[in-house]
Amino acid sequence: MLFKEHKLNATYRAYIDEHLFLARNVKREHYYYNPDSYAKQEFKLQKEKDIFDKQRELKSGIIGVTTIDDIEIKDISQHLIERIIERSGTSETILSALKNPLEMTYTKYDENGRSSKQYRGAVTTVAVNPEIGKYRFD
Question: Checking phi first, is residue 38 left (phi over 0); if not, alpha (psi -120 to 50) or beta?
């Protein structure tokens, strides 16, 4: 049995030597600890890239916008970005809620003294801190 394997391996080596395009290029081979770990790493990097792209899109589309009652948006929270990505929101729905709200609440204060005002659009509800122009996504 072992003799057959050696003979077969010798036949394969001779065939590969005749056809050089079949030869292994060891320099191009990459070994990973676990095939799943490479896929997980790629997935994680792609997810982080998507978050950065969405963050860039939101900041460029929303910062500097003035609401219907003249509050300028100066900053957006990380919580907002995470909720928009989680809920597949867009900057257009947020802009429509800020500029053309269906309902707008009075300024409220929480137990820490932070103010907030809600703008309810057709799809999105946005909470803005009117004092500093920073808002959250509810």
Answer: alpha
